[in-house]
Design goal:
The protein is α+β, with helices and mostly antiparallel strands and 271 residues long. Helices cover 31% and strands 24% of the residues. The strands form three sheets. It has a five-stranded mixed sheet. α6 crosses α7. The chain is globular. The C terminus is likely disordered.
Length: 271
């Protein structure tokens, strides 16, 4: 699962949405979201409230790993996730203080000689009334010499922590599918949060339908890649284009079976 924000502007107004999404190799679908009444990062309280909503409906064991970027850090937040038994792999900043073998370092200083991938265990010192937390880290240098440092609650090897974190990019792909590369969600002029939430809910259903259609269409295959290494069509676009083709060509046949039947009678005004 991934936690991230997406935002856009309607005139001078900010639309800032905190989204919890499920991501797999083929599916990227938002599950829950909340509107932030301010621009910029979410607070620990807003994140925990969203996760509490999830836990009210699903068991913590359904989360294989929660992934998030450097925006979603903080000792209170990490402690909440550990207390709720939610495994996480979250990128942290280079100036984060850690304690290793009784000595305190900034991560940047501790990893100054880091080359290639590296894993280690360290403790976040007690801070602002929060107890010390032992975490496991995976790190490597990326383009430009910047350090990628991922903190994980589980005792995994550094290379495996980094492999988990790579899946975080899928939520960025999902936002692109919802906006400029697919559904153009940011083109709406709706500002009322209840109506906008309904629109996001509808787009979540469309995303799920597109992924399911692509899966049925491609089977075990994957979209072809061009010479530059990128797919000629994304998984979402493959399914979305097929959905639109079916809607145009045969309005009587259900897109799916009895479990999720969507009758194509848009011209008759039936949805």
């Amino acid at each position: 699962m991934c936690l991230d924000r997406t935002n856009w502007k309607i005139g001078k107004s900010d639309v800032n949405v905190l989204v919890l999404a499920v991501v797999t190799e083929r599916y990227r679908v938002p599950l829950m979201w909340t509107f932030l009444n301010h621009s910029g990062n979410s607070t620990t309280r807003q994140r925990t409230a969203l996760m509490e909503r999830y836990l009210a409906r699903f068991n913590a064991s359904t989360v294989r790993m929660l992934l998030a970027d450097r925006e979603f850090i903080g000792q209170a937040w990490f402690k909440f996730l550990k207390d709720k038994n939610i495994p996480f792999a979250i990128r942290v900043k280079e100036d984060q203080l850690i304690v290793v073998e009784g000595r305190e370092y900034a991560l940047r200083s501790y990893l100054s000689r880091c080359k290639g991938e590296r894993g280690f265990t360290a403790t976040l010192p007690a801070k602002a009334g929060q107890p010390a937390l032992e975490l496991h880290f995976g790190t490597r240098r990326i383009k430009g010499g910047e350090l990628l440092i991922v903190a994980c609650s589980e005792p995994l090897r550094g290379s495996r922590i980094l492999r988990y974190y790579r899946w975080r990019w899928f939520i960025e792909c999902m936002f692109a599918d919802s906006k400029t590369k697919g559904l153009n969600l940011e083109d709406t002029r709706i500002k009322l949060s209840k109506r906008l939430s309904l629109l996001i809910g509808i787009s979540a259903i469309v995303l799920a339908m597109a992924c399911q259609t692509a899966s049925k269409l491609m089977g075990s295959k994957y979209p072809a890649r061009k010479k530059h290494g990128y797919c000629s069509k994304s998984w979402f676009r493959t399914g979305f284009d097929e959905l639109r083709r079916r809607l145009r060509t045969n309005e009587e046949t259900p897109i799916f079976g009895s479990k999720l039947a969507v009758k194509k009678r848009l011209r008759a005004g039936v949805a």
